[in-house]
Write a structure and sequence with these properties.
Cytochrome Bc1 Complex, Chain A, domain 1; 2 domains; six-stranded mixed β-sheet
Length: 442
């Protein structure tokens, strides 16, 4: 009965946390623990609940040579038993506390999210600490999670979207870890040993790669003590971060044959660094070009006017070691060639002429109006703050971001279009049986 009440109470608090009105301003404090660990904090004492976000820079790109997939497998095992608790015991303890932990890994970061009640803070942190510093990696858990990963890998071999991503990454990133899936391959994951998993844990979960944010019912002093308790026993240093990827685009088209009535296409070329003076102009330009809303140029030209796809979008992929401008769409095999030509034409047109004032004004209105909606709960705010730290944004970024967007001019857009949109380098990967589209990258 106590456990049921605890779960219901936590669910109620989570609902309240997600229903907090969008905030016009977020008061961020920088906190340094007695042990020297830094975090960003927003105090919110209206409900007895805390959202804690940890990021370890480097992520799956730090796999050791010949051990692709080790960090991904290790991440899936962190909560599968720790200290004296096996996987079932850990899950039961988490439920008893009405705490929630999630562990994920991406190309550039390993992500740990924790949600817990103020009344259970100490016990929730103790349980999470055991997972971080004393994971069991029991053989039965290793084999169970390995089987799950292998199932995902097999599924991706039959998924046109995954096949397209794999081909695009291989074409783009060469010998860099970005070129291969963080899941690994059937062969690499099957060969991983428990020692490989332990080594991956020691390489990534270290204090020199760490970023922390917290939002909720906790003071700066309390957060400092919590960080030292939770994170102070992690190794001080880990494996070196991967270096820059040598990105190359040659304007080619790669066709990967696959029996499906609809082809999937990825396209793109070089992007722009997050710290470039023209990044905000590029951000606004991409919104006009194809950022996913129905008013974007590619959506209008490819979907609305010609009915060549249900949806098309582009995005700035500002990765730690590579910067890309990437897009994706799907179309019937007999129409995808036309869609590709329309995209190329629009790329060249905007590169040559820029965009209209109405397009610019609409993009600004959309971007500035939608931004406050992101701050709709403690967990979302904590996630935004830790992302800001990873991207080396200033602590006042939230307050100044919309001003930077509103400051973008037509001249800025034209300048960045000249810099960013390169029709000669725009490259495509198509998976399917496209009619009239042939591989050109011989």
């Amino acid at each position: 009965m106590i456990r049921q009440m605890s779960r219901l109470f936590f669910a109620l608090l989570a609902t309240l946390a997600l229903s907090i009105p969008a905030r016009a301003a977020v008061d961020i404090q920088e906190v340094t623990s007695p042990g020297g660990i830094t975090a960003w904090l927003v105090e919110e004492h209206s409900i007895p609940f805390v959202a804690l976000e940890l990021r370890f820079k480097g992520g799956a790109s730090m796999d050791a040579p010949g051990k692709r997939g080790a960090i991904n497998l290790m991440t899936g095992l962190i909560e599968e038993g720790a200290g004296s608790l096996d996987a079932q015991g850990f899950a039961a303890a988490q439920e008893e506390l009405a705490a929630k932990y999630s562990f994920d890994v991406y190309d550039d970061a390993l992500s740990i999210s924790a949600r817990f009640l103020t009344e259970n803070r100490d016990a929730s942190i103790a349980l999470l600490k055991s997972a971080l510093v004393d994971p069991r990696f029991d053989e039965d858990a290793v084999e169970r999670v390995r089987g799950q990963v292998l199932s995902i890998i097999r599924g991706d071999l039959k998924d046109p979207d995954a096949i397209a991503s794999t081909a695009f990454d291989k074409m783009t990133f060469g010998g860099h870890p970005y070129a291969t899936s963080s899941n690994g391959t059937t062969e690499s994951v099957t060969a991983l040993t428990r020692d490989d998993i332990v080594a991956a844990h020691k390489a990534v979960l270290t204090r020199d790669h760490l970023y922390v944010s917290a939002v909720g019912d906790i003071t700066a002093e309390e957060l400092g003590a919590l960080m030292d308790d939770l994170l102070g026993e992690l190794p001080a240093t880990g494996a070196p971060l991967p270096g820059p990827a040598e990105v190359s685009f040659d304007g080619s088209t790669t066709v990967v044959p696959y029996a499906t009535p609809q082809s999937v296409a990825l396209f793109g070329h070089h992007g722009i660094p997050r710290d470039h003076p023209d990044f905000f102009a590029a951000f606004v330009l991409n919104t006009v070009l194809g950022a996913g809303n129905f008013d974007s140029r590619l959506m209008v030209e490819v979907r609305e006017k010609r009915g060549l796809t249900y949806g098309i979008y582009t995005y700035l992929a500002a990765k730690d070691n590579a910067d890309l401008l990437v897009g994706r769409f799907a179309s019937a095999n007999d129409r995808i060639g036309e869609a590709i030509q329309v995209i190329k034409d629009q790329w060249a047109l905007i590169a040559a002429e820029g965009v209209g004032q109405e397009d610019l004004d609409n993009a600004k209105t959309y971007l500035t109006g939608a931004y406050p909606l992101r701050f709709d709960g403690n967990a979302n705010i904590a996630g935004i703050m830790v992302g800001m730290q990873l991207d080396h944004m200033p602590i006042d970024y939230i307050a100044t971001r919309n001003d930077k967007i509103n400051a973008v001019t037509m001249a800025d857009i034209k300048r960045v279009a000249d810099l960013l949109l390169d029709p000669e380098r725009l490259s495509f990967v198509v998976v399917g049986q496209p009619v009239g589209v042939e591989t050109t990258n011989y």
